[in-house]
Amino acid sequence: MADLIKISETIRDHLIKQNAQAIDNGLCCYRTDSGLKCAVGCLITDEHYSSNMEHRPAKDGRVVRAIIESLGIEWNYKVEGLLTAWQAYHDGVYGVWVNDKLCASPSEQHENFVKNLINIG
């Protein structure tokens, strides 16, 4: 559980600091040419990043491998669920971006995600 909370905190802190969506040519990216990173992309080290993972879901094998190698964690349904939820948050599934500005708080999302993690044990 502690690893999941730490991962969520890392994403929350990154999104607060960056305060911009990682988009190139109208598509969300793990990394943009200008250096922006999405919620999941901020977890992937330079060493393990590859452009062939772009525009793929967090549960794609290439992305999973990069996250496992970057963070040194084991992949399981909780990690997948957390990262999928953060990816959806970043990509605007929850309607958090208005005029390219973050409107919903990453801190609130983090708290909600942590509560859900506790509930699923």
Report on the structure:
The chain is mainly alpha-helical and 121 residues long. It has one domain (2-116). The protein contains four helices and four strands. The strands form two sheets. It has a two-stranded antiparallel sheet with strand order 1-2.
Query: Rounded to an integer, what's the Rg over CA atoms?
Result: 13 Å
- Please report the distance between the alpha carbons of the first and last residues: 8 Å
On the 0-100 scale, what is the average pLDDT? 85
Give the domain tally.
1
- Mind describing the biggest β-sheet? 2 strands, antiparallel
How much helical structure, as a percent, in the residues? Answer: 40-55%
Oligomerization state: single chain
Poorly predicted runs of 5 or more residues:
none
Features of this protein?
single chain; 121 residues; mainly alpha; two-stranded antiparallel ribbon; 4 helices; 48% helix; 7% strand
Secondary structure layout:
Layout: H1 2-18, E1 23-24, E2 27-28, H2 61-71, H3 77-91, E3 97-98, E4 101-102, H4 106-120
Antiparallel strand pairs: 1-2, 3-4
Helix pairs in contact: 1-3, 1-4
Quick structural overview:
With 121 residues, the protein is mainly α. It is built from four helices and four strands; from the N terminus they run H-E-E-H-H-E-E-H. It has one domain (2-116).
